[in-house]
Amino acid sequence: MNKVYFHIICFAIWFLSFCPVMAQQTQKLYLSGTGNDNTVQWDFMVSAGMNAGKWSKIAVPSNWELQGFGKYDYGFTKDSIRGKESGFYKHTFNVPAGWKGRKVNIVFEGSMTDTEVKVNGKQAGEIHQGAFYSFKYDISQLLNYGKSNLLEVSVAKHSANPSVNEAERKADFWIFGGIFRPVFLESLPVSHIERVAIDAKANGLFKAQAFHSSKADRITVQLYTSDGKKFGAALSKPISNSSSTLISGRFASPKLWSSEFPNLYKAVFTLYQGGKAVHTINQKIGFRTIEVKQRDGVYVNGSKIKFKGVNRHSFWPTSGRTSSKDLSIKEVNLMKDMNMNAVRMAHYPPDDHFLEVCDSLGLYVMDELAGWHGHYDTPTGTKLVKEMLDHDVNHPSIVFWANGNEGGHNRELDRLFTELDIQKRPVLHPWEDFNGFDTQHYREYNYGIGNYMHGHSIVLPTEFLHGQFDGGHGASLEDYWKEMLYHPKAAGGFLWDFADQGVVRTDKNGELDTDKFRGADGIVGPYHEKEGSYFTIKEVWSPVFFERRDIVQGFDGVFNVENRYHFTNLNQCKFRYTFQSLKNKAAETGAIPAPNVKPFEKGTLKVKFPADWKKYDVLYITATDPHNRELFTWSFPITLPQEEAKRLVVKDGNSQVTITEADTTYNVSVNGIKLGFSKRTGILQRVENSKGVIPFTNGPIVQEGATNFQNIKHRMEGTNLIIESTFDRKSAYNTLQWTVYPSGWIKLNVKYFPAEYLTNFVGINFSFPEAKIKGVEYMGNGPYRVWRNRLKGNQFGIWNKAYNSTETGEQWVYPEFKGYHSNMYWCKFITTDQSFSVVTENEDLFLRLFTPAWKTDQWHNYEPIFPSGDISFMQGIPGIGTKTQRADRSGPMAGKNVFYDYEKEPARALNMTLYFDFTGR
Fold this sequence. Notes:
Layout: H1 3-18, E1 24-25, E2 27-30, E3 40-46, E4 56-60, E5 73-74, E6 86-94, E7 103-108, E8 111-112, E9 114-119, E10 122-123, E11 135-138, E12 148-156, H2 162-169, E13 174-175, E14 178-179, E15 183-188, E16 193-200, E17 205-212, E18 218-224, E19 230-238, E20 244-250, E21 265-273, E22 276-285, E23 290-293, E24 297-300, E25 303-304, E26 307-312, H3 325-337, E27 342-345, H4 352-361, E28 364-369, H5 378-392, E29 398-403, H6 414-420, E30 427-428, E31 433-434, E32 437-438, H7 445-450, E33 458-459, H8 477-486, E34 492-495, E35 503-505, E36 511-513, H9 532-540, E37 544-546, E38 558-563, E39 574-580, E40 587-592, E41 602-606, E42 618-624, E43 630-637, H10 641-648, E44 658-661, E45 665-670, E46 673-678, E47 684-689, E48 692-693, E49 697-703, E50 713-717, E51 720-724, E52 735-740, E53 745-752, E54 758-759, E55 762-767, E56 773-782, E57 795-802, E58 819-821, E59 826-831, E60 836-840, E61 846-849, E62 871-876, E63 897-898, E64 910-917
Parallel strand pairs: 1-22, 26-27, 26-34, 27-28, 28-29, 29-30, 32-33
Antiparallel strand pairs: 2-15, 3-4, 3-6, 5-13, 6-12, 7-11, 7-15, 8-14, 9-10, 9-12, 16-17, 17-20, 18-19, 18-21, 21-22, 23-24, 24-25, 31-32, 35-36, 37-38, 38-41, 39-40, 39-42, 42-43, 44-45, 45-46, 46-47, 47-48, 49-55, 50-51, 51-52, 52-53, 53-64, 54-63, 55-62, 56-57, 56-59, 58-61, 59-60, 60-64, ...
Helix pairs in contact: 3-4
């Protein structure tokens, strides 16, 4: 005998002689891998589509389309293969000889869709119908113990049961086939605990229904803290020839579970027979109480909750619905990083590991029975509801059950949730006003706020602000959230949805396919690329809210803050400041004393300003939560555009400004720069320097308004050349003035009036060929583009952006280059030939860079609008709509710009000042 093994055996005999006999635990043997990052090869053949009719290998778990088999189907697809595509699996495996005499189950965590299982040629049980549910068969009598066994599985992509197809397959998401979640064997002693259902309340009351073998005589439960220490005394209950036992008791002062403090305990259940421990299982639990107060709200541990949630599909581009524990951790962390506290399962139960991560990191979960617009028949639905609740019931993160989606509600199943759930959590019908909850989807702002927010039900839209392409999500969220936050019957809501569903097409050379507009609904891209809305949501949903403040001379460093947490005092958070010079990178940083501000209360945060604070450009304040997760970093500009312009613009110089006249043009020369202006309109027509032509022309064009600059004259004012129009109240009420300095800098001042009371745009345009641009460097808010209804989420700084032509949701190079950028101080345009710069004195100026090639939706609600020209300097920009709502129906921030004054007097005009440097520096 090997000496190492001999010593191990001797130690084991010695150890057991001093310890009580330990209860057996459930033993698990994986036949597949555990996720998309860990798979096992099985034999496989598909009946139709790619690589049909021949046996080969496939990774399990997986969706077979992503492995190069069958056919890709979106839920609305209709073709000849639908209903005929099946996969056939074979796998050989060994079972330990020591398992003989025990109960052995084969467990499928999820298989799409109708699944027939055979072991050693014999059918394990009836065909399972329903793709997203864990199911098992007792195969104890079918196995060859200590020998090889053959597993054969047939999986039909579409069900023979029409109601299953109505609930799962005819839907607005990708439809896949295959064994997509793990498969394993579980071995239990003859006398065993089958499962437990637990209810642990915030007041320490604990009860559990344990389902077990009827021959046992006692069951106990002991709780342990996260560091392995016993918590309270063990509970014990005798068993009286029953297959289930209710065991209960009270634990003193447990640490409570919530999204902010997800405290967990381990409950260890032990079954005894004849005084001997025969089986033990472990279950993580959280003490928390969910209470629905009708016509009021949802309370967790006595605190009224505002749910900041998102809908989430189980999805990854290279593996379809097959996920992993690591991916679940990443997704929940992304949600928590956006300051979300809730997630809705769309539109089916998730992997067990996703719920485990929600338990451990802290997210409230709405777990959903599949049913997109159709529903299961009652016999099938009854079976699947039981499978869902048996599998998920103990997760403290689950606070709601959802019976289908948008009309996919079989009302005969509602009672089952209450009967089968020991915690009696509320049941919702997403899209309906049901059971005291108005969950209707995509209500327009005016109707939603003015009507159903003043009804009698708790308002909890399970889908709102549809995120197709770049619309929705962050856009208009601030408007909606203000109402949701302060309205007493509003309980928050769930954005649609988390990630773009772009699937890798193995039949199209790896193309990433979102099925045109249907799958491009995410806050993040298919590989979790962060879009602009990600950061807007992060700021709007930050539980620390900063009241807007301007940093000006005499500012005392006091910021008004609001605590929007439910359980956390702001003195449990950390705050830091950074005074930053953007020019030379000098910085001063330090800690800010955290204020004592209780949940739902307001207070102040005091920043100690250094004596020389005016030398810095911006103040950043960063807040982190009690778990060291950044909530947000706010920026407060210290320098003003006028100050930057004074620093950057050089007016004096040794060069003389000259002007000559042609038939229609003023030709101006200064410091190697040649300019051409229209004698009739004053419009810039040509720019050239010693390096060549700069094709920045045809401006300023007023948008929306009349470009009616007339009666153009020129004059010298000292060494400066002035070219200006003449004001006329009726025909030339918009005016421009060009000033050419001896240094070569050029100043433009425009005074203008919008054409209407309500306008989409307020500003001026220029032309520049897009093919010539390589990138920009600018001082302002960035790096993400903005809309009128999505201004939050950026920081003030100096940003470098390379040109890209990203269409949000179709290419995923972020941040997007084209679009509107806010609070521009100056911008250097980097071109294929040479650079030029523009500086402004105006606060709150928007820089517009070209026009994205927009896709559209079938209702034309989403389509954003852009001014004419290529580069614009705007004092008012439009909002963006969503798939389901036009911009003007998405709240006040998405409305048109309002200009009140129609009096065409110079003093009443809007005023914009720009400086141009065409020297090529």
